[in-house]
Amino acid sequence: KDVVNKIAAGEVIQRPVNAIKELLENCLDAGATNITVSYHQGGLKTIIITDNGHGISLEDLDIVCRRHTTSKLNTFEDLKEISTFGFRGEALASISQVAHVTITSKTQEQQCAYKAEYTNGELNIDTATNQPIKPTPIAGLRGTSIRVEDLFFNIGARRSGFNNHAEESRRIIDVVSKYAVHSAGVSITLRKQSDTKTDVHTPLSQSITDNIRTVYGAKLAKELLSLEHENKQLDYKITAHFTNPNYHEKKSYFILFINKRLVEHKGLKKALSSIYDGYVPKGTHPFIFVSLTINPKSLDVNVHPTKEEVIFLRDEEIVSEIKEMVAVKVAGSDS
Ligand code: ADP
Ligand code: MG
């Protein structure tokens, strides 16, 4: 059973960045407005993520890393479905299978924070008594701090595959940048543990375009067109920001959030990128940022084990409608 759990965990958490993405999503789900992430050795040695969200109650701390635990937590099942928009994971369970996890958390109601350590989904065991070590009281503000140490310590082959910490850092910066842009109303900070300088930092801005300016620069931000649209019949809402046809980037950016999750949708990426084929020089790219909210029932998230690739149940209709709307804006601003 242990082996099965580890294999399953390895599917979800393939690299440090997968853990950071899951942890960050949890902070956002918890309604945090301030999130800081620090990491060491490309996230393999340490990841510490701290938020000011609603916290985890003392009672829930016992089981929070257990597999299939979400339904047992103090939140109602359907409330949960709404707040996570159909994306149901087992992130903490998976991470605790492949790393040492410490959680410190305080809810509004509690007098103090509690701290607990986990292995393989369970509270650590006191070797003297063979009993789980209960969460211990500790000073702290409302919110949650999760520390992940020695990722893949028990999967030697996996760990030794990560010699290039710079590459892992690059991936972490990339993903956190995208969440920082998407999360208007949330201040997100990322730094390497040893650095005072930040890799990513957004203030409490109220708009995605402000965040694009902060993260990707003013030069790009002033070239953006935007689109807002709601289709009641197909039950989705879209906000998109994309560069005008006279601008191009060396690097290709297609950033897609569906129901607040950073995901991939190959068909939509291809459709929107192709709009620019006749405009931008060969080998250069537009910048495209899309945030879509759709009824979870109209979304298939089980295309890929990490749930990173999604499709819509009415895929062709939605993709072609979005393509059409973006194409009109792009063509309309050609000069
Ligand atoms: P899921 O997010 O799909 O429920 P996770 O393993 O990511 O699964 O998280 C399990 C549960 O732990 C969450 O549902 C939430 O109740 C709680 N949790 C995790 N991280 C936080 C956090 N930063 N703040 C508050 N609650 C959290
Ligand atoms: Mg989660």
From TrEMBL:
Annotated compartments: Nucleus
Domain DNA mismatch repair protein S5, first and last residues per copy: 212-331
Family per record: Belongs to the DNA mismatch repair MutL/HexB family.
Protein name: DNA mismatch repair protein MLH1
Source organism: Acrasis kona
Lineage: Eukaryota, Discoba, Heterolobosea, Tetramitia, Eutetramitia
Span of the entire protein shown here: 16 to 350 of 699
